[in-house]
Amino acid sequence: MNGPTLATGDMFVSDMDSQNRLASQAQLVDMEGYAVAAAAVRAGTPVRMVKFVSDSADENAKKIWQETVDECAKALGVWCTNIYSSFQVNL
């Protein structure tokens, strides 16, 4: 397998005990990506996820996420545009 180990959960990581426990097992915590990866593995389909870290997984996680979600979306949009452009074929 390539890439970081991804942990998942259904709520923001918002305390140091949870953060430390998860950090000993995974490099990233994500609320959606794990399900996508698990489905791809079951289907035998390669998957590549591009993630933009939007919060610090601490007591300010929810507030920080709300403040940065637009910035994250724009940064991912730029990345996608650049990747798509690099695959364009000139006819």
Overview of this protein structure:
The protein is mainly α and 91 residues long. The chain contains 3 helices and 2 strands, in the order βαβαα. The chain has helices spanning 16-23, 33-43, 61-87; strands at 6-8, 28-30. Strands 1-2 form a two-stranded parallel ribbon. Helix 1 links the parallel strand 1 (6-8) and strand 2 (28-30).
Features:
mainly alpha; 51% helix; single chain; two-stranded parallel sheet; 91 residues
Helix-strand blueprint:
Elements: E1 6-8, H1 16-23, E2 28-30, H2 33-43, H3 61-87
Parallel strand pairs: 1-2
Order of helices and strands: EHEHH
Overall number of structural domains? 1
**CA(first)-CA(last) distance:** 36 Å
Mean pLDDT over the full residue set = 80
Number of DSSP E strands = 2
Strand order of the largest sheet: 1-2
- Gross morphology is flat
Radius of gyration: 16 Å
**Major β-sheet annotation:** 2 strands, parallel
User: What's the number of helices?
Assistant: 3
Structural class: mainly alpha
Assembly state = single chain
Low-confidence stretches: none
In what range is the share of β-strand residues?
5-15%
| Helix proportion | 40-55%
